[in-house]
Design a protein that fits this description.
The protein is mostly beta strands. It is built from one helix and three strands. The chain has one domain (2-49). The protein starts with a strand and ends in a 17-residue tail after the last strand.
C-alpha cells in the first residue's frame, strides 16, 4: 500500500482540507502525469503513523 496525501480539487493551498489515504501500490504506480484521483469508496482514509510527518517543514522545495 502507498500512503497518499490528497486535497479537494488537487489545489494544495494552505486552507484546503488535506487528508491521507491508502492506495494499492500497483494502482498508484499507474497514475498519469496529471496525478491520481482518490475514490473514497475504494481508497481507505488513513489516520495512522505517517512517513510524511515533517515533510512541509523542509522549506527547500523538495
Amino acid at each position: 500500500m502507498t500512503e497518499v496525501v490528497a486535497v479537494v480539487g488537487g489545489n494544495r493551498r494552505a486552507d484546503n482540507d488535506e487528508r491521507r489515504f491508502l492506495v494499492p501500490s500497483d494502482e498508484y504506480a499507474g497514475r498519469s502525469r496529471f496525478g491520481f484521483v482518490i475514490d473514497p469508496v475504494r481508497h481507505a482514509e488513513y489516520q495512522g503513523p505517517s512517513s510524511f510527518i515533517g515533510w512541509r517543514s523542509r522549506g527547500d522545495g523538495s
